[in-house]
Structure formats: structure tokens, C-alpha cells
Amino acid sequence: MSGEAQLYIPSTAASEPGKHRRKPGKARGRQASIEALEQISALLGDSPRNRDLLIEHLHKVQDHHGHLSDDHIVALAELMKLSPAEVYEVATFYHHFDVVKQGEQAPAEITVRVCDSMSCQILGAEALALELTEKYASGDVRIQKVPCVGRCEQAPVAVVGKRAVAQADVGKVAELVDSKATEPLDCSDAVGFAQYCAEGGYALWQAVRNGEKTADAVIAELEHSGLRGLGGAGFPAGRKWRILQEQPAPRLLAVNIDEGEPGTFKDRTYLEQDPHRLLEGILVAMECIGIAKAYIYLRDEYPHIDLLLKQALADLYANFENVPEIELRRGAGAYICGEESAMIESIEGKRGMPRLRPPFVAQVGLFGRPTLEHNMETLFWVRDIASKGGEWFASHGRNERKGLRSFSVSGRVKSPGMKLAPAGITLRELIDEYCDGMADGHELYGYFPGGASGGMLPASLADIPLDFDTLQPYGCFIGSAAVMVFSQQDSAKDLALNAMRFFQHESCGQCTPCRVGTAKAAALMAKPQWDKELLDDLAQVMVDASICGLGQAAPNPMKSVFKYFPEELK
Amino acid sequence: MATQPSSFSDVVTFELNGQSIEAAADETILQAALRHGVEIPHLCYTDGLRADGNCRACVVEIDGERTLAPSCCRHPSNGMKVNSSSERAVKSQKMVLELLKSDSAVQTYNPNSELDQWCDKLDVQTGRFDPREQPKADLSHPAIAVNLDACIQCTRCVRACREEQVNDVIGLAHRGDHAAIVFDLDDPMGQSSCVGCGECVAACPTGALMPSNNVGMIEPDRVVDSVCPFCGVGCLLSYHVKDEKIIKVEGRDGPANLGRLCVKGRYGFDYIHNPERLTRPMVRIDGIPKGMNEHFDPSNPLKMFRPVSWEEALERAAKPLADIRDSHGAGVLAGFGSAKGSNEEAYLFQKLVRVGFGSNNVDHCTRLCHASSVSALLEGVGSGAVSNQVEEVALADVIVVIGSNPTVNHPVAATFIKNAVKRGAKLIVMDPRRTEITRHATLHLQFAPDTDVAMLNAMLHTIIEEDLIDQDFISERTNNFDELKASVANFSPEKMADVCGIDAETLREAARLYATSKGSMILWGMGVSQHIHGTDNVRCLIAMAMSTGQIGRPGTGLHPLRGQNNVQGASDAGLIPMMYPDYSRVDNTDAHAFFSNYWNATLDTKPGLTVVEVMHEAEKGNIKGMYIMGENPAMSDPNLNHARHALSCLEHLVVQDIFLTETCAFADVILPASAWPEKDGTVSNTDRRVQMGRQAVQPPGDAKQDLWIIQQMANGLGLDWQYAHVSEVYEEMRGAMGKSLPGITWPRLEREDSVTYPCFDETQPGAGVVFIDRFPTADGKARLVPAQIIEADEKPDSEYPLVLITGRQLEHWHTGAMTRRASVLDTIEPMAVVQVHPSDCAKLGIREGDQVRVASRRGEVTVTVRADSGMRLGEVFMPFAFHEGAANLLTNEALDPFGKIPEFKYCAVNISAPRQTETS
């Protein structure tokens, strides 16, 4: 985990009474310097000072100054009419913000992030991080181990500044560092506005807009298709639209591209190819349901998609009239913000802490309004399903399952990548038919069927259909269909510990079972012997009593080890 | 049978642990369970704070649900089957407690830790999990110890700080198992913007936030319910007493504070145990001159005075007064009572002056704070008290705060204003200074000081020009509107913009917001009243409320925020020169007849002299003797050199106080008196709530309760008073206050602690909203009085180019007699400062922390510079609590012609390097 190097020591105050009291004469609290106020004012320009833009504004400061200083935080607070604590607690929640206190060293100009989640771990992330740390021991480049950056098929992955490096090694990283090539990757191959339109793009939206196609017809096709929410929860999309239609206006749409589940990279892959398809899905949903405004929440690990979507939105607004408002928001390095209510909190400019439900997001969501929240891929399919018909989508499938699934396959297969395959396909079929088999010298030992939170299955269960609802009997779920394959050279126990440390690192810290539970579980799992009784107790309470899916799913890989890989515990 | 919920409009029946129980629709499972005697562990939930559901100790099993549910956040529905004691639920409850306890400090900081109590109840053991790495203690704050090794991240402190008090100092920073409670930017609490209200301490369930010095570990001998002695908000509180000393104060659920307190109320109590308390009666040593000379030493009164017996002291106090009266006639004596004492003391004091001195020369500090507000209100609406209570900000859509710094001077009232803003109300702050409350404001009109009338007339102009008036209200309930209309016609916002420094569109926007909302409420402070045009300022506010009909309904009205804990009550009780109790004018024949009869005395029909007038007359020799109880004119009056000289001219001065105040330097006799927690009595807050104070401890040494002293003085003046108990005084006062107190008997106050007046029926609550259908004027209508621009008495010029505004700090009360001796308060704010804009600092070549000389035509002081970007350029601010840098040496004694209030809020000064001191 990236945590160790930057562990937070909660209080620097001495225990001597009265020490650290403020100087006589000095005003209470921190006062922003006139210089800082001027700098932040200039950075914010004429953008609104609304509280929900706090994270956006923090990005401006971080991007420009490379970190967030005390003085800038206090100045930003003053300009946004917030208290310093309100800004500080948000800034320190998100790992892409570097808060640098007075007297502390600002980070180096270039940061190299080395992904250490499961696929990258088994493909050498640790060694890479170590080598880079040694190479840049002087501190002129900062090396950070970070959780999944959404490029598992390219493992091991490093990110130099904003530039991702596939199959990274020290040489490739050094070359980019030396040339200061830190800008996001180029995405000029993506389908642009003109091409998208030429291939029939936005015709569906126009048809819905001018009444040629009714909202009811679109929703009916969605229902026929059996399309379910592709972020992981699998709620039927058509039904969700109907629920939203019944809610009082104004209604809002929140699009989740906080693709953070380790092993998942499908959203990135689709958007790199065809960003307008998402926008059309958004516009159709807005038109059908009567949505006032849409927010796209994009994880900060995808800066190239940020540029792509900005361009796509600019083209959209330049070429059509009366396009409803679609606002693009950047995440800031927090897996939990992929949880729907945490994402809403984050869009509101707050710490990404999941809300208690009820009330449900569809009723009380973003800014307290009824909100349709969708994983980006769910909307990505709207055009095809509405145009080709729900039957077309449902006609795919194997083993009595229906539809298509976008599997993010990584790990010990010969050809990893995003594989669009029939729902219900088995792992063995997926490897053999879509991935050219196992990597050379590797035998299938086990796999994660649905990212870090979906649990692990052994090779003996490689022939069960992969889809929603099919894996529950085995203590697993498919989630976002992130399939991570491991071999006899890998340890399920190590991977489970990797996953638990990931959850510990990414827990928002709100509820006890998750905040304390993940930390205690990771500590227990780092011991040579696992205490089954205690871990079982802990797991049950995390599942039963955590607020959101993170804590509830965190014990899954650990439980899988007890269930399917007991020989590793001997 | 369990008690039933109060409202059963919408009852839900559900099953809890196999029993069918009923819950009110707004109750959670936890609340319903507790009400039915079913205990469910809970930590992050507590009464009065929003349920957050984060600790998960209260999870229960609900039939048909996949996971357990937090009972503190879930509402039952009909037929729901809930189990809080199933194996599955209890397993989670216990594991949550075990996880938290495993990470908790070994040391106990709070003997009543809720975590420990629940662990005991559920028999939770620890030892299975390794504890976390513990943070260090933060003991940087003088009143609060921060021991985050006991923190369970339940965020009760965050909610107390952010949602209840809205001070927004505490945050939950970082995330996951690093999530931590922080102050500002994870600063030591003592360096942070923390205002020390202690609400977080009250909220903390484990002892992570506790009173410093482990006071929380001490079990008190007794807890005495009383009311706060500081500001006019009137927070109910309890004194915790151990070994006859107050060790702790806690907020009580009073109507004006709902359990909240500020730093003064919660941590400012130990002044009463200060070694400088006066404990023996004293008389001036023969030959020692009066004045703040080398003999004057508050820590050693014996340099100036010698102790005597009470008998001798009273004799030497009263007899010379009687002799002066008898030889020079009634008009040469005067008395200053106190707004810090009880209603009963105020009543008795003014009765002593009127009956014993034979004149109406009785006044108190109301003259220095809201006299102009009262004169305008009496003229306009026939009553000087507030029309609506502070709590009604919760019902207002627009709240105007003008000339007031409520987070500092009325901190708990300010919390309700901030709560209202969070709820969605719009706040308009009009103040030349940018103070903390402006962070919450929709509009801040940072107008040029002294230009209130220009600004308010421009708003009135807008209201009338844009037809935002309430014509029906104007026709039915006011007089003189046409005159007002004609007058404000000359004050267009466009014309006034340059005068007041606020652009025309903002003036118009503020006027529109105020006039058109469903309910707009105006609250004001001394920034309005302490001008030579203070009465005019308030006339404008009255006109705004009347022309828009924003009065007489909940969430509207006019509220002058009263300063002292009992300035409302003291005025009500007649501690003012022109009125008897209940505002009957002394020159009114009926009133005169009533009180002559009620007191069986010959009363003067001529209104007496006001505070500043008394000083002028003393200097001229027309006032020769004075009795001053609990006031400190040698610090609080404007132009102190003048006031102090006047005091030194008196032939005889008796001072009754708890410390050797600056005024004592001019006294002949000193009578050691009681502090507020040392006596029983009532006080009336800014909301017209009469509230009960109870004695917690005995006065120190030979100090006596004030009521006893007043009686002895009266008897020394030839009266024969035999009040056996404070209740007898109260009931006599009630008998004289038929417009206010008939329904508020002493036994009722003992029972209820707080009752609003006017109240005519003992079975009814008092009227929170007044003027519903008529004003207490002769014809029942309000009188609108137009105001013209009058400039401040002393404008800046080349010699004195800066404007000085005086006021208070959060920690210090008035002249500092109490708070400078309260250890926590004086540690937080220990020195006199002058607040200057950073740009002005640069211009003047001074830096924060520098010592500078601030001088006016009347005097000079040396104080420390504090940079404050909330100041306007060319304007500086000084608190007047510091004897070593007394701001009132500089202020101007020019008076408002109606309220006779001095212009504390405006005079001309300059700033320069300090003079070389003789010793250096």
C-alpha cells in the first residue's frame, strides 16, 4: 500500500501544558496572508465560489503550485467563506492533494506513482517501486506506491506525473522523468465529434428530443435488454429510469467514472475509443427522465480522459443548441468515491463518505434532489440498445445468461485486456477463447471474478458461469467484471492481504467496523498464522454492520482463502 | 407502562425483541426502545445532535434486511420486526465496542466514559486486537485537554462545533484508520481558531476532550442550577461545587441556550475565587489622596484603605450621605446601580435612591449601551424591550444584524443565527468591521462608520420608491408615514452610496431582501446605539420594520441585543433616572401618586441625572455624594481623565463591589459584596425572560450579599427596611410592575426557572411576540420619526487621522473586573490591543506585536498591535476591558441628545511609536 511512506502522525503538539499557545497580541487562528489571498484569487478567476466546487478549486491550487500550503488553504477558505477546517478535512481526505504544512518539505516536482494492486503486484510492482526509490533516493523525484490506476492489462504500471507507463521498468520511467514528459497520454485515436455524427451518432438523442422516439419506447428497450447497472450492483437500468421519472423535479444525473475497483479498466477503455457515446447516453437519459443537470465524476487517475471529455463536451455545445448542462468533475484519489453516495458527497465538495440509506439516492441524492446515478458503461450501452433494440442485447449470452459483459481481464493470461463477451461465459472459456490461454509457464490456480471486493475462486471453479447472481452461492460476486487471474506461482493468501490493505487504505474512516476492522484484519493477516476464529468474527461484523459495500465486501478475499485455499494457511 | 411519546398524531406499531411497541412517527428505533426501557448500546448518538450512525454500536436486526441497521438512524414502520438482542445483533454491538476499546487509552480521562459503561454492561473484554499507535496529548488550550488516545472518531465534537455552535473549528481530517479529529489545519487547539465554547467537551463520550487539569475526574459535592452572569443572552447553567469552590460549569437546557454556553459562561467562573476578592469592609486611610495614584493597588487594597468592622463601615458609609442630603438637599446625591446584579437588587437600589436620597439621580450602565435604543423605541412603539425573542431567528427568512458582533458579544445567540443560516435564512450583516458572523452572511454591508442614517435612509428610500411597503400595516398601525416618506425622498441609494461606502445596487438588494421576505428580523448592538445619532439610527430601524410590516409576527421584529446579564431587568426595575419600575415616568402624576403610596414616601417629580450628566455635575460640585454598586465608571465612562477627575471631586463616595475596581480608587468607603454565584435572585435577559439564579457558594471572608448591604445602607439613611428574604423584594417589585409580571410569581420562578414577560396569568407562558395587534402607545399606533444625517462629534483630521471604534472581545467582560481575573479568559486574551488593517500597518510602519501609542485629544495609551484584515482602512478597533491600556481614556463624551449615550463608537486618534518610558 502507498500508505506506509506517508503515515499520518495525528498530533505534533507537545504534552507540556500551555506550550503551543498562541502568541499574545496575535489574532485567534490563522490569518491568510495578503499575498496568498491574491494568488488564490487569481487562480480562481471568475469561477463561482460555491462550496460544491471546493475539490475543483483545490485541484487548481495543487496543479499550479504542486501542493497545498497552509497559507493557500486558509486563503482559499476565506475566499470561499469556509472555515480552514472545512477545507483541510477535504484536502486531506483525497490522496492526490499534497498538504504541506509550514516547515515541511514540498513534494518533488515530479511524482512517479507505482501501482501496487493485485495484478501489478504479481507482475513485479514491488521490485519496480524499490528500484525507483533507490534510483531517486536523492529525493528529486517522489516515488509513491498507489492503489490501482486502472491499467491492469498493462501491469506493472507506473505513472510519471500524469503520463502512464505500460509494462513499466526503471528505464522507461527514467526516460520520461529525464525529458519531463509528464503530460497525459494522447488520445487522438478516439472517435471525434464529426466521425461520431457521421456514423449516426446523436441521431437517437435528436429523435428523442423531437418526439420521434418516446421516452417510454427507450425505457421499454432498456427493460427488454435486461441491462443492469454495470458498476457492480446490477440494478436493472430501465426500472431505475422509471423510478426517477416518478420523483419530483428538479432531478439530477450523476455519472460514475470513478473506476477504482482493482482490476477494472473497462470504462477507461471504452472512453479512450468513443467518448461521445457516453454523452449521447447521458443526453438520452436526461431527455427521457426530465433531468435538469448532469454531473460526470471522473477519477483523477484518468487525466487523458478528462481532456477527451472536455473536448467532447466543447464540441457538443458548439454544434448543438439547447444542450442541457453537463458538468465534468474530477475526483482526487479516493476509491470510496466510486460508491454512489460517497460520489455524491464528493461532487458536493465534501469528504467522500457514504451516506446512510434510506433515504435512497433516487429520492434524496445530489444536493438533496432525486438523482439518477449510473456507472458510465450503463449509459454507454443506451445508444446501441435503443437503436438496435433490447432483443439484440439480450440475444447474447451463454449458460442461460443474457446480454454482454465487458470483462477487464488481467493477471496471468497471455493476452489481457478488456473483453466484450457473452454474459454467463465461464472463466475457462474466457481465458481460452478471448485471452489466448494462460501466460507461458503458468497454470490456473485461482481468480478474482469481480475485482478486489468480489472474493476469490479456485481453479476447480473455473467452469461456472460468470454473471450477476451466479456467484453468490460461492461467496463471491462479479461486480464490475474485473477478472484477475493468478497462477501456481502466486499466493492467494498474499493477494488477500494485498486486498485487505487496499481496503484499509481506501476506507473512508466513517464507521467502526470498516475503519478499525480493515486495519485490525490487515494486521492479523500479516501475521504468519491467521486466527480463524477472530477473523471470522471480525468478518461477520464488517459484513453485517458496515455502512457501505466497502466494509461489507472487504473480508471477501480473506474468507475465500479460508474456504478455497486452506492449504496456504497450514 | 412506558410513558407515551408527546405527539401521537402518527403512531407506528412495530415489534421489538418480540414485544409489540408504539413509536411516534418522528422517533427512531433507538429512541422508541429507550423510551420503552430497552437498552441498546450507542456512542455516536446523543440527544440534541443530529444522528450520524457512524459508530455502529446500536445496530439491530430487522426482518427481511440483508445487513444490520443502525437503530439511531432508522425509523420503525408498521409491522417491522426488530431485534436488538439477537445473537447476530449483539455480536456486532460487542465487536464494535471491543474494536473501539482496544484502540482506547489505558488512562481514564472521564469516569463517566460512555464507552467504558457500555463495555461493562455488555461484558466486553479486550486483548484480542493489538492497539493502534496512539497520538500525543494536546494540552495547549488553557481550558480544554485534548487526549485523542481516547478518541473513537464518533464525530460528536465535530457536530457540536459545526452544527450546533457553528464555530467550524473542528474537522475530521484524513481517512480510514488515520481519520483524526483536528482543529483548523491540525493545529494545537490553543493556537487554533477555537473560541473555547466547550461544546465539544460537553459532547465527547469518552474523555478525549475534557476540562483541563483533570477537573473532569472530580465528583462534585453538589450541583446548583443557576443562570450565567455575563451577557444578556441568559444561558441557564449549573455550578458544580467541590469543597465550597466552583470547579466546573455545565450548560442547562434553558429556553435561551438549549444547553449551549460560550467560553465566558463555561470557563470564566473562577474570578469569584480570585485572591484579589474584597473580603473586608474598608475605609480610606486618613491622608491618602483619592485617585489612581501610587497607593492604588487592586492586589493590595491596604495601601489605600484600612479594614474596619461592618458596623463601622456602614456607619461611615451612610451617615455622610445622610448629612450631605440633610445639609444640601436631595439633589446633591446620586447612585449608580448595576446591571450585573439581580432584579431585586436593582429594585431595592433605585428605591433607596428615590426614597432615601430623595431624588431620581439613579442610573446604571444602560446609559452607556442601549439608552438611545430605548429612547427611540419608547418614542416609536411605547416599549423599550425587544419585540421578538432571539430564538425566533429560526422562523425568519431574513435576519439583519447591524452594529453588532454577536459571535463575540452574544455568542450563544449567534449560534442560533448561524443555525438559521444553515437552515436557509438569509443573513444581512451591516457593520464597518468584517467580523466572524459575516462569513455566514448573504450580504455584508461594510459601511463607513457614522453613516448608519445615510445607509438606512437609502434602504427606506428604496422600500418606498419600489413600492415594497406594507400599505395596510402603515395605514392601520402607524402615524407619520407621509413625513417619513417626504424625508427619505432625498436619500436615494445612488446619492447615499458615496456617503456610506456601499454601492447603490447592494443597498437596494438589501432593502428588497428585507422588505419582501415572509419574515425579517432586525437585531442590533452598540454599533447602532453608541453614537450622538444613536436614537436616529434606531428610528430608522423602527421605520424599516413599520413601513414593511415586519413586526408583530413570529420571526420578525426589532431586537436590541442587550449587553449585560440584567440590563433589561435593571431598567425594568426602575434603575434609570426618568422612570419608576415598569417604565412609568417619574413626572407622570399617576405614577408618582402610585409609588408615593406604594413606598409610603415623598418622591421627587423631576427626572434625575444620567450617568455622564452626574459626572459633569460632580465636577461642578453639584453632586457631592455617591453610592456606587457594582459599576466601574472610572473605566467604563468616556474620556476617563474627565470621569476620574469628576469622581475625585466628590465629597463622599461609597463603592460596593467584589474587587478593588478603578472606581474604588476614589472611594471613601468600600463595602465587599457578593459575586453572582454567591446569591439568590432573578435576572431578565434580552428576550424578556425572567430567570432564576441560585446561590452556589458563600461569599468569601466578611463579604456580604448585596441585598443585605443595600438594606443596611437604607437603614443608615433613616429608612426601616426589614426584608427577610429575596422573594419578599421580588414580590414587592412584582406588585409595582403590573404591565409585566403579574403572572410570574416567585414560586413559579422557583419551579420553572425561566418565564417570559409580559405574563398576566400564572398558568400561561408569557408573550414571546408582542405588538401583535397594537403598540403600547397612547393611540395604539407606532410613531414614525424621520432622521437626518448628523455627523460624528469628532471627525478625523490631519493630526488625528484615524477613526477609533471601541467594543469588546469574546473573553472579556466590560471593564475586565471579573474576566481579567478569570484565569482561563485572561490567559487567552491577556493584553490590550489595537486592531489595525494590515495595509494600514504597512502604511504606519508597524507590525503585529509592536507596542504603539494610540492618542486622542483626551488621552493616550500604549497597546499592542493586532493585524485585522476585517477593519476598513483608516479605522482601528480597541477593546475597553484593559486597565493598562484603557480605551476610554481616548473616547469622546459627546452625547446623543435623546438617550444621553456617549459616542463610544467614533472618535479621532493617531498611532505612533510609544514614548520612551522614564525607566528605560
Q: How far from one another are the termini of chain B?
A: 79 Å
How much of the residues of chain B is beta strand, in percent? 15-25%
- Helical content of chain A (DSSP H or I, runs of 4+): 40-55%
The parts of chain B where pLDDT drops under 50 for at least 5 residues are 1-7
- Alpha-beta classification of chain B: alpha/beta
Number of strands of chain B: 37
- Cα-atom Rg of chain A, whole angstroms? 24 Å
Number of helices of chain B: 29
> Could you say which overall geometry of chain A the principal axes of the C-alpha atoms support?
globular
Could you tell me the mean pLDDT of chain A? 95
Assembly state here? heterodimer
Q: Structural class given helices, strands, pairing of chain A?
A: alpha/beta
Give the strand tally of chain A.
15
**Largest sheet of chain A, described in full?**
5 strands, mixed
Physical arrangement of strands within the biggest beta sheet of chain A: 12-11-15-13-14
What can you see in these coordinates?
The complex is a heterodimer of chains A (570) and B (920). Chain A has helices spanning 34-44, 54-65, 70-79, 84-91, 118-122, 125-135, 170-178, 193-198, 203-209, 215-225, 237-245, 266-273, 275-289, 303-319, 340-347, 376-380, 382-388, 390-394, 427-434, 492-506, 512-525, 532-545, 549-553, 556-564; strands spanning 68-69, 99-100, 110-115, 141-146, 158-160, 163-165, 251-257, 291-298, 325-330, 371-375, 404-411, 417-422, 444-448, 457-458, 482-487. With 570 residues, chain A is α/β, with parallel strands linked by helices. Chain A has a five-stranded mixed beta sheet with strand order 12-11-15-13-14, with helices on both faces. A four-stranded mixed beta sheet of chain A has the order 4-3-5-6, covered by helices on one side. In chain A, helix 1 crosses helix 3. The longest helix of chain A has 17 residues, at 303-319. The radius of gyration of chain A is 24 Å and the shape is globular. Residues 1-15 of chain A have low confidence and may be disordered. Chain B has a seven-stranded mixed beta sheet with strand order 14-13-25-24-23-15-16, with helices on both faces. In chain B, strands 31-33-32-37-30-34 form a six-stranded mixed beta sheet. A five-stranded mixed beta sheet of chain B has the order 2-1-5-3-4, sandwiched between helices. In chain B, strand 11 and strand 12 (245-251) form a beta hairpin. Chain B is globular. Chain B starts with 10 loop residues before the first strand and ends in an 8-residue tail after the last strand. Residues 1-7 of chain B have low confidence and may be disordered. At the A-B interface, helix 3, helix 4, helix 20, helix 21 and helix 22 of A face helix 2, strand 7, strand 8 and strand 33 of B.
